[in-house]
Specification:
- The protein is mainly α.
- Helix content is 63%, strand content 0%.
- The chain has seven helices and no strands.
- The longest helix has 28 residues, at 115-142.
- It is globular.
Length: 171
Amino acid sequence: RGQAIEQAGLLDEEFFMYLEDVEFNWRARLAGFTCRFVPEAVAFHEHAPGLGRYTLPKLYYSERNRIWMATAVLPLPCLVLSLGWTLARYLVVASLLLGRRDRSPKREAAARLSWRGLATTLLRAWRDGLRRAPRFRARVRNAQIPAAVRRETVRTVLRQFRLKARTMRAH
């Protein structure tokens, strides 16, 4: 574990919150380490009271950081494909918000957010995410990880954890 931190680095403080652990795991995988799923492991995570679960600030940081993470680790073809996947995810979430039959707490909390607020927050997240994306992409290139290793690592993970946009709606 210490060797992984030495080679992959610490959690990136620029992420501030959300996805910093996922981004670290990608860097560790790209450095040649194996990340394992341990179902018996328990982690307690308390959401910051200022952000809550279904709020615009959480949406902002989650999307901005997802853009940073994707541009850092995904090879260009996967990055381009991820745009379509992201659009599909947005459509699934929109259909969830519009669904009249779904009275889940998630739908009720999301319904209190305005469409204008959601759109503005997403646009800000994309603007800020894309503005800093080259820095994150350069960091992986500067780590001397060959492109073939990056491509194969991403392919392996994507094959191993097949996720559909519908599955991600809860996140």
